[in-house]
Each structure stands twice: as C-alpha cells, then as structure tokens.
C-alpha cells in the first residue's frame, strides 16, 4: 500500500470523528449544581410540579452520597469536579420539542449529522431516528405505520408533558431510583433529553429504533434519560450510539436507561459508544423483566477516559431471561471498567454474559460483574464467559466477577481467559501476504465477531470502523 | 473503622508471654511492635457487593474470645527423617535462633492485618520445620489439640536449596471443658529456597463453637514449588487465606482447598497467587459442599505482574449444594499486567446431578446412599492431590462422617 493511500485512509477515518462546530445556544445554565440550577432546568422545560420535586429530592441524595472510592481497582474519578459542569444547553432552534422534517433544522446542525450519516441510515433501514444534539432532541421522526399501532417514540422532555401518567409511574421509581448510586442521583437531578419508547401489547417493531447522542461543547455534561416500556407480548430493538470530539477539559456523561420488559415481551438494547478520550462515562442502565420476558444488552465501549458501565437486569418473573454481550477496547490512557449485573429473583430464570476485551498501549480493561440468585429462584441457570486479549506489556486486563447463590437447585458457571495475540497466528497470516498491522486487525476482528454478528449491519460496520481506527499506528 | 481495643491486653501481658519462654530480645520486640500495631491495623478485607457484606468479621467479640495467658494445647510432632528439624517453636529458638530470626516475618508481615498482629503478639504454640540442603523427607506431621478459650499458633518452614518435604498440620478441639466460644489463630510462613519442593497440608476440624483465622503464606525462589492443601471441616466461622508469591523464575504453586459445611457454618476461603517472575505456574483448585444453612464465600486472585513473562495461571472453584437453604458466593479474579500470559479461571455452583442419581437408583441403590456416593466422588479430584496418605484418609473420613 502506497504512503499516499495511507495518508488518505487516515484522513478519511480521522475526519469522521474529529470535527466540531462553533457553539451556539439559546440557553445555557451557569456552571455548578444548585437548587436554583435544577429549578431553572425544570422551568425551561415547562415540566409538571412532580418532576421538579423529584429532581430536588435527587439533588439532595446526590449531595449526601459520597463519591465511590473503595471499589477494588476502580477507575480514578478524582478529576471530576461537578462545579465545572454545565448541565444544560438547549440548541438554538425555533421548533420546541423537535423538528418534524430534516429541512427545519438549522444548517449547521444538519451538517453535523450529515457527517455522521444519520439521514442515509434512516432512509435505508431504520424505523426512526432521535438524534440528541446537546441536551435536547432536535429531530424526531417515526414511520407512520408504527404510529398507527400506538408505538410511541419521542424525546423524553416531550414525553413528560404528553404522556405524563405513564412516565410519572415509571420514571426513576422502581427500576433506577436516584438512591441507587451517586451518579444516578446526579442524573435524576439534572437529566435532560433522551428517548421515550412505548410499545403496546402484542406489537412487534420489526426494524430497530435508533437514537444517536452527541456532545459538542467543552465542559458540558450529558445526562440523557431513556425509558423503554415494552408491554406484554411486544418486541422492540433500540440502538443507542454515542460519540464526541476531543477537548482538553473533561466531559462527564451520566446517562440513565430504564427498560420495563413485560410478560413474554422481548427487548434488545444495543450500544456502540465512542466518547472522546477526555470523557468520563458513568452510566446506570437497568431492566426489569416480568414473567417470560427476555432482555438483551449488547454494548461496545470504545472511547472515554474512564467508563464505569454495568447494564443490569432484574429477572422478576418466572422464566424471564437476560443476555449480555459486551466488548471493551482500551487504548492509551483509557480505563474501561464494564460488566453486567443480573438478579435472578424468580424460578426458571436464565442469564448469559459474554464479555470480550482488548487492551493496548497501556490501556486497562476490567470486567466487573455480579450474578445474584435469590432464595426460591429454583431451576435457574447462569453462564458467564470473559475473554481478554492484551497487545503489549504496558496494558492491563483485569477480571472481577462476583456470584451470590442462595438457592441450591441452580446451575452457575463462570469462566474467564486472558491471553495474547499468538505469534503463530501472526506468522501464518504473514505467510499469506498480510502485513503485521493487517494480520493483527484481522485477528481482533475475529475475536469480536460473536458480538458484531448480533448488531445490525450499520452498527457492525461502524464498530469495525472504530476498531480499524483504534488499530492504526499500533505498531508504528 | 478501627477494630475494638482489647482492654485486658497490655505490654505486661506480652512481656510475660515472652519471659515465660525465655525468648530472645528480637522476638520480644517483634511481639511488642505487633501489639502496638493493633491500634491502627484493619481486619482482613471482606468483599462488599451492593447492599451486602460477605462475611461479618466486625461481629467477633475479641474482648471475650482472647484469653492470652491461659492458652493450652497438646501437640504431637513426628519427623519422617532424622535429617529434618521438627520442633516446637519455642524450643527451636535455642538451637536455631539465627535461622528463625533471619526468616521470621520475611514472608508474612506481622502487621499484615489486625488478626496477624494479634497472633504474633500473643502466640504460644507452633512449629519450626527446617529442611537442610538436598534433603528429601516425607510425612512430617503436626497434630494439635486446642484446650483453651483462645490459641495462637506460629509455624515457620524453611526449605533449603533442592530440598523436599511434605507436611501435614492438623488442629481439633481437645477434651478439656471450655464454656462458650473459642478462637484459634494459625499463621504459617513457608520459605522455599532454590529448587525446593514443599507440600503443606492443613486440616481444621475444631468444634462448632470455634472461630478460626488462618493465614498461610509462601515465597518461592527460582524453580521452587509450594503446594498447599487447605481442608476446613470445623468451626462456626472460618476465615482462611492461602497465598503464594512466585518470586523465582520457573517456580510453581498449587493451592487445593476443600470444605464441607453443615448446620450454620460459615467458610470464608481465599486463595491468592502473585506471579512476579518469568515462567511461573499456578493452579488453584477448590471444591466445597454445603448442607443445611451453611454458607461459603470464596475469593481467588491470580495477579500477574509486569515482569512476569510467560505466565501460566489457572483457577477452578466448584461448590455443591445439598440444601435449598445453603448459600454460596464466589469471586475469582484475574489481574493481568503482562500480556505474555495464559490465564483462566472458572467457577460453578450446582446440586447433585439428577441423571446421576437416577442411574444409581436404577441399580437398586437407595436415594440417600446414591447421593452420598456422588458427594464422595465430588471430592476425588482434590483427594488425588494429597500426597500424604494419612491426610487423605482423614479427609475422606470427615466427608463420610458429615454424610451420615
């Protein structure tokens, strides 16, 4: 491959993720977090009183809880200074609650999403796109036939007003209460934007629903909330993607995801995250699965300076099931601490966790997971498998699972392996004409194939593209 | 959180223990330093998951349990060969004081935690095993009976270059009447010289009014091997830590653990290896059975350091639950800092296999007998690792006894 082609290739892949737009907003809250900040956010969104009350209570809880400091091997969070965060920026657009067509958006916002390929993806395959630019959904669309079936897909701010009763019942109550952890409390106080998805009984949404988040301003936080309610016998696949350009100051992403999987319903939640290397990514994601409900979490964590992300499912009803597939990729200066949590609270519940991690250039990956089988959850089974690949001696790969088994009639299995890219594998591929870089890239792509197979084509393509980007220069 | 002070404990107590044994100044000072360390030392780490602490060591009432001046035990020691030194710790000081001073605390820091500091300050029993260069000895046995409210034991094993030794150490409750609960503490240090080979087996079968704390540590030199066999059958609460630092190139360690819990026994069993040098190998194997409302908690750590090239590290932990009301928690951990590593771990929890039961019952074996056969079979992989015949028989007998 010629050097000119190399340069062109690098330009193409780098350019995709490194651009930024000049900041322009209609409203920007002051830095720091006070009751006044919370009131201003709530008033600007024209929220009902009960939501303001919840925000204020969450703020109190946030202020009371200590920062996590004593988890074994946890990422370093000392750089996070809440007073430096700007929690709320609303973009300058005329249409509140999101535009109904692409042309209504300001030109520079259209340009941002053009580069990310959102419109083409929507036209080709997707049911609807909710793109979050700064703190508010600016573009909402849902194909008409799903609206006719009663499927709701709108931004969370709008849902609070238009679907108040159902949101009030489900929003940060049973699934992820603000008391769960410090960053859930922070999220509860200053959440903004995100998606609301409601799927009526026995309704199947055949094509994935996609939301794409983006952070563009230095020092701003990102606190989107996703609430998915899948009623009895329904089926839906939701895709969340994240990316942010590089800035020198840190960014904080503290999102919340709540999924209610009704009886015999099926929800798949897929994520590819590529926050910039100065982002702290501290999410709380949880599902509650009723009888026969089926939850699937699929996630790729590629970016961020530090990630703490452990999608969790409570298997509440008999025969509910939970599957996790995760991939973590840590390069220079990154600490990706991810895993899964499953609570088997009923008989005949099943879970599987498959985790793959790759560490290079001094990055660190850690799998942290908890499987809890409650007393009475007989005939449950769980299988956890963790595999880690390390490129060099500066990198670190840790595995820290926890299992708590209170019931004897169960099958519990956990296994983990750590290894290096085999010299024999490299040699074989090189003997077939591949150079060192390409050989390693091929091995890594094979390593993560069980996960990319589960993703829609667009996301598998993007994940492979991100791997390609991360792999470049690894042997320079 | 600071651990409760034991008001009845003082420098005078420690001096008296040292004086009664005519101990050298360095050991007396070590005891006093350990005593002073109690003010700041922490209890051993316990795993915390959301809303739940796996073992409650804070609940131990040391004021009631610790009775340092009335320690009593009967210990019988046998050496399989007259070239090996097997002596009560106190007696060994007279003849081997220099070796003991050089090695004591080199592997196990007296101030490692609150419980080690307490034990070093107060120990009155224990064993010194010394294997000279090139000597190969089997069947060293140390059989102890505890006859007091509390007992603190210190064992030091020094295996010189190219020596080989197998050791069995056991503890059970003696005949003396002691009202209320008891506390037994056992610290074991193994110094394995170049190309030395040590198998250290331990069998704990104290009565169920007992609390047991055990920390056994080894450091391996080049090409050395230390294999542990840790069997816990007794005590109401057992906290056991088995640790090996693989400091020498080409050194190896195997840690085999077994436990069988009945009634409301609680076992907190931990196995840890640190790979610090090139071409080291570790294999951790733990098998446990739980019946009634017994509970087990397990942490296994495989830590591969930056300089640990060409590491092989494996871990398997299996628990069999005979009762719906038993509870098993496990946390196997891999901490990898060198990519030139093959490492794996696995953990399973389950019950007696229904198909196996059905097969045996179809051969006219009654249900109870069939289950018992399967449980005995479950232990076979660890029994096979025990080189000391006497030890293997003891473990088998205890398993059978608990199945009646």
TrEMBL record, chain A:
One GO BP annotation of this record: iron-sulfur cluster assembly
Pfam families in the record: SUFBD_core (PF01458), SufBD_N (PF19295)
Domain SUF system FeS cluster assembly SufBD N-terminal: 139-210
InterPro entries: Fe-S_cluster_assembly_SufBD, SUF_FeS_clus_asmbl_SufB, SUF_FeS_clus_asmbl_SufBD_core, SUF_FeS_clus_asmbl_SufBD_sf, SufBD_N
Taxonomic superkingdom: Archaea
Domain SUF system FeS cluster assembly SufBD core residue range list: 213-447
Family statement drawn from the similarity comment of this UniProt entry: Belongs to the iron-sulfur cluster assembly SufBD family.
Protein name: FeS assembly protein SufB
Taxonomic source organism: Halorubrum tebenquichense DSM 14210
Organism classification: Archaea, Methanobacteriati, Methanobacteriota, Stenosarchaea group, Halobacteria
Automatic annotation (TrEMBL), chain B:
InterPro entries, alphabetized: Fe-S_cluster_assembly_SufBD (IPR055346), SUF_FeS_clus_asmbl_SufBD_core (IPR000825), SUF_FeS_clus_asmbl_SufBD_sf (IPR037284), SUF_FeS_clus_asmbl_SufD (IPR011542), SufBD_N (IPR045595)
Compositional bias per record (Basic and acidic residues), positions renumbered to this chain: 12-21
Domain SUF system FeS cluster assembly SufBD N-terminal: 76-139
Name of the protein in question: SufBD protein
Domain SUF system FeS cluster assembly SufBD core, residue spans: 147-378
Family the UniProt entry places it in: Belongs to the iron-sulfur cluster assembly SufBD family.
PANTHER family for this protein: FES CLUSTER ASSEMBLY PROTEIN SUF (PTHR30508), UPF0051 PROTEIN ABCI8, CHLOROPLASTIC-RELATED (PTHR30508:SF1)
Pfam family, one: SUFBD_core
Transmembrane feature ranges: none
GO BP annotations, alphabetical order: iron-sulfur cluster assembly
Species: Halorubrum hochstenium ATCC 700873
Coiled coil: none
Chain positions covered by the region annotation Disordered: 1-21
């Amino acid at each position: 491959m010629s050097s000119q082609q190399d340069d062109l290739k690098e330009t193409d892949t780098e350019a995709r993720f490194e651009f930024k737009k000049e900041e322009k907003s209609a409203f920007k809250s002051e830095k720091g977090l006070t009751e006044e900040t919370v009131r201003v956010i709530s008033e600007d969104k024209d929220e009902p009183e009960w939501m303001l009350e919840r925000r204020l209570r969450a703020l109190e809880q946030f202020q009371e809880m200590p920062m996590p400091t004593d988890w074994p091997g946890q990422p370093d969070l000392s750089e996070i200074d809440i007073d430096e965060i700007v929690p709320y920026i609303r973009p300058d657009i005329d249409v509140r609650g999101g535009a109904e067509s692409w042309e209504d958006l300001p030109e520079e916002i259209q340009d941002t999403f053009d580069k990310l390929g959102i419109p083409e993806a929507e036209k080709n395959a997707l049911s609807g796109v909710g793109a979050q630019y700064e703190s508010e959904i600016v573009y909402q669309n849902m194909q008409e036939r799903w609206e006719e079936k009663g499927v709701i897909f709108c931004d969370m701010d709008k849902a609070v007003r238009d679907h108040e009763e159902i949101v009030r019942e489900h929003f940060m109550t049973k699934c992820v209460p603000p008391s769960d952890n410090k960053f859930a409390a922070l999220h509860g106080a200053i959440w903004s934007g995100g998606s609301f998805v409601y799927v009526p009984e026995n309704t199947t949404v055949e094509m994935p629903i996609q939301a794409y988040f983006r952070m563009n301003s230095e020092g701003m936080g990102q606190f989107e909330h996703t609430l998915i309610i899948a009623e009895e016998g329904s089926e839906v696949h939701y895709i969340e993607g994240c990316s942010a350009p590089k800035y020198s100051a840190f960014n904080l992403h503290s999102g919340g995801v709540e999924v209610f999987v009704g009886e015999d319903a099926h929800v798949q939640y897929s994520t590819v995250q590529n926050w910039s290397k100065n982002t702290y990514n501290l999410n709380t994601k949880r599902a509650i699965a009723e009888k026969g409900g089926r939850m699937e979490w699929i996630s790729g964590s590629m970016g961020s300076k530090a990630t703490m992300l452990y999608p969790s499912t409570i298997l509440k009803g008999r025969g509910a099931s939970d599957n996790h597939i995760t991939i973590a990729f840590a390069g220079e200066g990154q600490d990706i601490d991810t895993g899964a949590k499953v609570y088997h609270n009923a008989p005949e519940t099943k879970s599987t966790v498959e985790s793959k991690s790759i560490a290079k250039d001094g990055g660190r990956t850690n799998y942290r997971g908890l499987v809890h089988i409650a007393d009475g959850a007989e005939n449950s089974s769980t299988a956890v498998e963790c595999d880690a690949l390390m490129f060099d001696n500066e990198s670190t790969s840790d595995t820290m699972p926890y299992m708590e088994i209170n019931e004897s009639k169960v099958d519990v299995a956990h296994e983990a392996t750590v290894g290096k890219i085999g010299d024999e594998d490299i040699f074989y591929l090189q003997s077939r004409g591949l150079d060192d870089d390409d050989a390693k890239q091929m091995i890594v792509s094979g390593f993560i194939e069980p996960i990319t197979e589960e993703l829609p084509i667009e996301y598998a393509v993007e994940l492979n593209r991100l791997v390609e980007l991360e792999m470049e220069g690894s042997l320079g | 959180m600071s651990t409760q002070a034991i008001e009845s404990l003082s420098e005078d107590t420690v001096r008296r223990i040292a004086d009664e044994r005519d101990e050298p100044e360095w050991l007396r000072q070590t005891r006093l330093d350990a005593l002073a360390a109690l003010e700041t030392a922490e209890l051993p780490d316990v795993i915390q998951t959301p809303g739940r602490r796996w073992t409650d060591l804070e609940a131990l009432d040391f004021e009631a349990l610790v009775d340092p001046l009335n320690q009593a035990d009967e210990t019988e020691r046998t050496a399989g060969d007259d070239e090996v030194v097997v002596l009560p710790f106190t007696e060994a000081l007279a003849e081997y004081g220099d070796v003991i001073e050089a090695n004591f605390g080199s592997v196990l820091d007296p101030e490692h935690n609150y419980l080690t500091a307490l034990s070093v300050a107060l120990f009155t029993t224990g064993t010194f095993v010394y294997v000279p260069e090139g000597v190969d000895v089997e069947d060293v046995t140390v059989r102890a009976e505890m006859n007091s409210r509390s007992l603190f034991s210190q064992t030091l094993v020094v295996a010189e270059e190219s020596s080989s030794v197998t050791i069995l150490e056991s503890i059970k409750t003696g005949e003396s009447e002691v009202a209320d609960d008891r506390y037994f503490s056992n610290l074991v240090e193994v110094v394995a010289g170049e190309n030395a080979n040590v198998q250290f087996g331990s069998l704990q079968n104290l009565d169920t009014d007992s609390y047991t704390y055990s920390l056994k540590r080894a450091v391996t030199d080049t090409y050395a091997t230390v294999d542990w066999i840790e069997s816990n059958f007794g005590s109401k609460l057992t906290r056991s830590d088995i640790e090996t630092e693989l400091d020498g190139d080409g050194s190896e360690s195997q840690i085999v653990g077994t436990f069988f819990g009945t009634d409301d026994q609680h076992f907190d069993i931990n196995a840890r290896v640190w790979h610090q040098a090139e071409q080291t190998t570790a294999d951790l194997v733990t098998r446990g059975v739980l019946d009634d409302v017994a509970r087990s908690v397990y942490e296994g750590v495989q830590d591969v350091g930056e300089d640990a090239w060409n590491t092989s590290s494996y871990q398997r932990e299996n628990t069999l639950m005979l009762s719906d009301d038993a509870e098993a928690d496990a946390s196997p951990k891999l901490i990898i800092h060198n990519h030139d590593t093959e490492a794996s771990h696995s953990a399973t929890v389950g019950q007696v296999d229904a198909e196996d039961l059905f097969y045996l019952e179809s051969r006219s074996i009654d249900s109870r007998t069939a289950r018992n056969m399967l449980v005995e079979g479950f232990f076979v992989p660890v029994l096979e690792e025990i080189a000391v015949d006497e030890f293997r028989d003891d473990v088998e007998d205890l398993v059978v006894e608990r199945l009646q």
